[in-house]
Amino acid sequence: MAINYCSTRDASEKKSASQAILQGLSKDGGLFVPEQLPAIKLDFHALAEQSYQEVALKILSAFLTDFSETELKDCIDAAYGSQFEDPRIAPVSEHDGKYFLELFHGPTIAFKDLALQILPHLMRTAAKKNHFDKEIVILTATSGDTGKAALEGFKNVAGTQIIVFYPQGGVSPIQEKQMVTTEGDNTYVVAVDGNFDDAQTQVKKLLNDPEMREKMAKNGKQFSSANSINIGRLVPQVVYYVYAYAQLVKQGTLAVGETLDVSVPTGNFGNILAAYYAKKIGVPLGRLICASNQNKVLTDFFATGTYDVDRPFYLTTSPSMDILVSSNLERLVYYLTAENPEETAEFMAKLARDGEYTITEAMKENWKDFYGAYADERETAEAIHATYQNAHYVIDPHTAVAVHAADEYRLQETQALPLLVVSTASAYKFPQVVYQSLFGDAPADDFAAADKLAQKTDTQIPKAVSLLIDAPIRHNETSTIALMGQIVKKLLHLS
Ligand SMILES: *Cc1c(COP(=O)(O)O)cnc(C)c1O
User: Fold this and answer.
1) Ligand 1 pocket member 425 (CB < 6 A)
2) What is the pTM (predicted TM-score) of this model?
């Protein structure tokens, strides 16, 4: 069955999977969604015996139907290999009465690797299939994590180049070191004298600048985007929910068909939306717990039906969830309207105009799959502490938010079902916060905090951190905001 992708705002705007991946966003500003869901037979006894790569092939083949099996296999082999420190890629383990899906064994020790390791390969394959002969250039500004995950994904992928701008002094020392030590002859990292918002605004200007586009075209290049609304990032995230369920069957924890609740630390709503797709294609998932930090727009949305982004913005210890506008929520709204693009477009127009919208009573009938809860800063620290106290398991602040939300959810249920917490980052990505939550007064330096955390908890520092200490600096380019365009022209040799 061939699956096409249409816009959440216009059903006639239809693309093949590879075209949707190349294009990223629909012309009308909507997001691509599958026109219908693939009919997949999920035999969990058989899936329990399969590797992550085998499960990935099954799921990606079902969704990305204009890719051949060989093409997908090549993408999967390139994405999920030895760059993951754990050969199981996404292992599941039990601690303190919950199951943890560890999505942090990739090169940047956070869950974005699961999608960004494969996206560049899907893009390159999509380009070939569509006889798109230009070089793909990713231009992005980062306030921390996504930049490094994208750099690692695109590094050394033929036919692509990536330029990442970061605010000098605006990212943590570990994050800076991670970026400026990136290998690959198609990667560029530039420290900008300015803040993140200014850098991002300038990047957006460059992406839309007609003169720049023309110069790019003349030199056989075109800009593209690796952001989380691309279906080439969403579909690979469905894989680990299938894999996790199969692993729990294999471990004897779940009988096939038994319901599994899931708690997902949520920012842009991509990860939890993948869980929703997994449920729709037949993984026996129960409640999808949408866990937020102090920026609890989504908790309020699921409590009231009103999505209102006009509110204070907090910087928290779970920075990857410090988000007010969750771009992937548009896809959920589309499903809540029973796949009505006109109605979806109206809600999005209202959001752009008024900063809020309220869904209808009829739409609420369709959202019982979700439960919203949040953790404030104290509750986040307490969840890190309690999980270690009870089970000697060290979790990061994002995962802690999901643990707290799961505990809150369970208090309301008469019978606790098995529950999967999606663990989105290694504790070693945030060693100071984790150390502080466990033992008080952390060393002021990230690497020193990591060392002390390892000693005190008897855990191993991941290679992604330990190898950084002696890694040579490979990028030392700097720029002012105004000169960013000149830098791009210089780095890409645009004539
Ligand atoms: C990006 C990120 C999230 C949020 O995921 P979404 O798909 O944007 O909801 C949560 N935790 C970590 C560590 C992340 O990097």
Assistant:
1) yes
2) 0.96
